[in-house]
Amino acid sequence: MLPSFPRETWKPALLRHQVPTALYPLITHDGSLTAALKALFPDFGVRVLHQGFRRATLDEAPLLGLRRNEYAWVREVLLLSGTEPLVFAHTAMSRKHLRGPWNLLHRQGNRPLGETLFSSRRIARSSLHYQKLGRNHTLTQRNEMPFHSLPARRSLFRHRGAGLLVTEVFLLSGLWKNACITTRKWR
After folding, report:
1. Could you tell me the domains of the chain?
2. Is there a contact between 89 and 167 (Cβ–Cβ < 8 Å)?
3. In angstroms, rounded to a whole number, what is the distance separating the alpha carbons of residues 66 and 54?
4. For a disulfide at 169, which of 75, 88, 121, 141, Cβ 3.0-4.6 Å?
5. Do the beta carbons of residue 156 and residue 183 sit within 8 Å?
6. Burial per residue of 142-164, b for 16 or more beta-carbon CB atoms within 10 angstroms, e otherwise
7. How far is it, in rounded angstroms, from Cα 76 to Cα 168?
8. pLDDT in tens, 44-98
9. Residues in the chain with pLDDT < 50?
10. DSSP string across the chain
11. Nearest to 82 by CA among 35, 139, 43
């Protein structure tokens, strides 16, 4: 069984009024965000911002079985349409799993992680949980995001007992207005 998310921060449901209307179907979509973005944006791409060891955030450490301030292997990328950032994606796992079940991830490069995660039936995914990241959240501060309240979702993937936590922060891009009119492309 997958562990539960801390109740005080991440919620198992997202209310429609909490995010821009055009983004709601995409944020709550429980399939591959990569596949959905590729269908919406033909010039989809990935830019790696960081890949290596960092301290796990306070709200992700318990989900990964880590102690407070313990280092995790972290991959942070921007999912793009051309050069326009759409989503900031943060992936974290225990360092001990880097050579185990998730050993291929450190060689992912600019390939979308979603393609890897959704290509295997052996990988289990928890339900999505949601939060609006404020300016005091570690991910917002670490990456100098200019917005004070960004909609985010996260889920925990399990492969051979090892957890991989994926957090996706939806950046407030003007491209969403045009893209979400065509949500039928990816549903």
Report:
1. 19-185 (3.40.1410.10)
2. yes
3. 12
4. 88
5. no
6. beebeeeebbbbbbbbbbeebbb
7. 10
8. 999 999 999 999 988 889 999 999 889 999 999 999 999 888 899 999 988 888 7
9. 1-2, 5-7, 181, 183, 186
10. -PPPPPTTT-BS---GGGS-GGGHHHHT--S-HHHHHHHH-TTEEEEEEEEEEEEPPTTTTGGGT--TT-EEEEEEEEEEETTEEEEEEEEEEEGGGTTTTTTTGGG-TTS-HHHHHTT-TT-EEPPPEEEEEETTSHHHHHTT-S-SEEEEEEEEEEETTEEEEEEEEE---THHHHHGGGGGGT-
11. 43
Q: 101: how many CB neighbours lie within 10 A of its CB?
A: 18
Q: How far apart are CA 128 and CA 155, in angstroms?
A: 5
Count of alpha carbons within 13 angstroms of residue 31, beta-carbon side: 10
Q: Which two tokens stand for residue 113?
A: 């992680």
User: Could you tell me which of 180, 147, 183, 127 has the C-alpha nearest to residue 21?
Assistant: 180
Which amino acid belongs to residue 89?
A
Q: Which residue has the tokens 């407030």?
A: 172
